[in-house]
Specification:
45% of the residues lie in helices and 10% in strands. By secondary structure, the chain is α/β, with parallel strands linked by helices. The structure holds 2-acetamido-2-deoxy-beta-D-glucopyranose (6 copies).
């Protein structure tokens, strides 16, 4: 047992050691926090959005005033912790070091969550058999997932919302044709809840995240007009709630109500702004399915429950194909220090393998209706998985990055768990991971701290966010007996990608029954096992409460300030995205299809 004095002595030694670390800095030292704080104003992004675009910003002055060193910790925001990570969402996120804003080394500054505009759909359960209702539920789930992944907030509405609209009785009194009345019900429901998008539940965003039309819908809607798509009928509208209700009232005054079939024919044209030649959406209404996917239409005709489930699989496959076609140059699972990080990046490799598989469906080689010349998912044109030493900035490459804690990296690169202060000081270079993985992007000359800002913008900036996915090594279990990805992680990633990720590997074997070396073909079994052991031990040190664990952890973090910052940032960014979705799911429980 260590006595009090012993602990204090130990603490003093650690303090002195860290002090020495800082004193002994070479020109490539990360700047001290003070230095960073002084110039932090420079890192407020200069493309700040217009004030009017900012959602729920409590205090506009907080980012307009020139940046100054905070003297108080910023207030805690709602739902801003998860496990060990804490975050603070703010426009000052591109500071190299979060602690200069949060005054808490464990609290990362993340970019504000982009606002998610609502996309509503109208679904009426009435008159459906049990099996068909269940198939519809799957379809709605697929629909919600697809829209969520594109940055929207999908909400399923029903007759209750339509009846809530004050104009409901006036519509009912008109005695409209069933098709037209159905259109009116959708608009009434939409007009009774909120501004946003109204989309058919058979309409799927079938393009990349940065697609022009999808981006413009995400930005919101012109309050003057209701946006609709040319030649696609009444499948998608975007508008403000007041405008929608005005349009319903104006339509009710028209004298062509008796013959009209669609709401587009009765709402006066000057309400609409028409998007020409829309290519970003795929409509799986019955006519399209009959025309293009006849075998599935036949199935639906025979047995709606079975047929619709086949349609769900088909749509899911098409969503996956759209992802694969967007990133046609392959999936990059970054692997700096390749001789020592095979086990470390293995969860990324597993994920990449799942994503590049083809989900089973009827009409396996078909294309989405909006993109008949797609490259179908077949074994022959399966996406490449590459392992570059660093980040590749190419819009046709999807990156999966797995970041080790500095201590973990030190340990695998030393090939031993005997990582000591002298070793760190004399034999390791600072911020190894960040320097190595951004070398081909930023060259060899910058030090770690100058790489933090570009790295953060790859993880969370507009360009990088939809083209990469980042985890910490420590967020995955490390078990040589069972290397399968945890189901809760894959379940969550379904929502990130917008399609259901195939769960089976090509071998079709149960993951946990597989021999270890199936995962590492051509690897050296001894070395792989040793790496597993080192990562496992490192994890214990990182969680450890013993003073020697704490001290070596602090020393490795102090020596690698930039790597640590990047690691915490990634941990918080991933955690926040999981919390965002869970919170939304809680709120959506009341709605159909969740
Ligand atoms: C900040 O660090 C730079 C080197 O990165 C140095 O040139 C400069 O003098 C430092 N400024 C202060 C205020 O310490
Ligand atoms: C940050 O977290 C580590 C590990 O969880 C802990 O040891 C340390 O005391 C924390 N620092 C602060 C300032 O809370
Ligand atoms: C990557 O490339 C895109 C355009 O090709 C550019 O806008 C972006 O800034 C680049 N990202 C980095 C980190 O260099
Ligand atoms: C990889 O680990 C070995 C020890 O197992 C070490 O000698 C080598 O330098 C390490 N490679 C790198 C790039 O650090
Ligand atoms: C750990 O490494 C140091 C040298 O860096 C050595 O003196 C010490 O004996 C080693 N300890 C163990 C348990 O191997
Ligand atoms: C969000 O916060 C509320 C109350 O603070 C809590 O009840 C809820 O469980 C949190 N949700 C998540 C997903 O953490």
């Amino acid at each position: 047992m260590i006595s009090h004095r012993g602990t204090r002595l130990f603490g003093a030694v650690v303090f002195f050691a860290i002090f020495l670390l800082i004193l002994s800095s070479t020109p490539s030292t990360p700047p001290s926090l003070r230095n960073v704080t002084n110039k932090a104003g420079a890192y407020v992004p200069n493309n700040l959005p217009k004030l009017s675009d900012l959602p729920n910003l409590p205090n506009i002055d907080s980012f307009r005033l020139p940046f100054h060193t905070p003297t108080h910790k910023p207030p805690e925001q709602k739902n801003s912790t998860s496990g060990e990570s804490k975050w603070y969402s703010d426009w000052k996120w591109l500071n190299p070091f979060s602690s200069s804003v949060t005054l808490d080394e464990n609290r990362s500054v993340l970019p504000p969550l982009p606002p998610r505009p609502s996309v509503f759909t109208y679904y009426n359960l009435a008159g459906k058999q049990k099996g068909e209702a269940e198939a519809d539920r799957q379809l709605l789930l697929t629909w919600r997932r697809a829209w969520w992944a594109k940055g929207f907030r999908p909400v399923v509405l029903g007759p209750a919302e339509a009846e809530n609209n004050g104009i409901y009785q006036a519509v009912k009194a008109k005695g409209l044709s069933p098709e037209l009345e159905m259109d009116f019900m959708k608009w009434l429901a939409w007009g009774s809840v909120d501004s946003g998008i109204l989309a058919d539940w058979q309409l799927f965003p079938m393009a990349d995240y940065d697609d022009k039309l999808i981006t413009s819908l995400r930005r919101g809607t012109d309050p003057q007009f209701i946006t609709r798509l040319e030649n696609m009928g009444a499948v998608l509208f975007s508008g403000e709630r007041g405008r929608v209700n005005d349009a319903i009232k104006a339509a009710l005054d028209r004298n062509n109500l008796k013959d009209a079939r669609s709401i587009v024919d009765v709402v006066p044209d000057d309400f609409f702004r028409v998007v020409e030649k829309p290519k970003s959406f795929a409509n799986y209404d019955l006519n399209t399915v009959i025309a293009r996917y006849a075998p599935i239409a036949e199935k639906i005709n025979e047995n709606p429950a079975v047929g619709k489930l086949a349609l769900v699989d088909l749509i899911n496959l098409h969503l996956q194909i759209t992802f694969q076609n967007t990133f046609s140059s392959g999936i990059s699972v970054m692997k700096p220090f390749p001789e020592n990080t095979t086990v470390l990046v293995n969860p990324g490799v597993k994920l990449a393998k799942l994503i590049t598989q083809c989900a089973p469906a009827m009409l396996q080689t078909s294309c989405p209706p909006n993109n008949p010349s797609c490259i179908p998912c077949t074994r022959k044109n399966s996406l490449r998985i590459i392992h570059p030493g660093g980040y590749i900035n190419n819009s046709a490459v999807y990156t999966i990055g797995i970041l080790p804690h500095p201590y973990t990296l030190l340990s695998v690169n030393k090939g031993s768990d005997n990582v000591t202060l002298p070793y760190i000081r004399r034999e390791s270079t600072r911020d190894n991971w960040l320097v190595e993985s951004t070398k081909n992007l930023l060259g060899n000359r910058l030090d770690g701290s100058s790489r933090v800002v570009p790295f953060k913008s790859i993880v969370a900036g507009d360009f990088g966010m939809s083209r990469s996915l980042w985890f910490t090594v420590e967020s995955f279990p490390t078990n040589p007996k069972d290397t399968a990805l945890p189901p809760e992680i894959i379940d969550d990633l379904d929502w990130h990608f917008g399609f259901r990720i195939p769960r089976e590997t090509p071998h079709g074997k149960d993951e946990s029954q597989k021999p270890l070396m199936d995962d590492f073909p051509g690897g050296d079994e001894e070395k792989i096992k040793a790496e597993f052991e080192l990562i496992g031990k490192a994890r214990e040190v990182l969680k450890g409460e013993r003073p020697e664990d704490k001290s070596i952890r602090e020393i490795s973090e102090a020596w690698n300030l930039a790597d640590t910052e990047a690691w915490r940032f990634v941990r918080a960014f991933r955690a926040r995205s999981v919390v965002e979705r869970k919170k939304w799911e809680e709120e959506e429980k009341a709605f159909v299809g969740s």
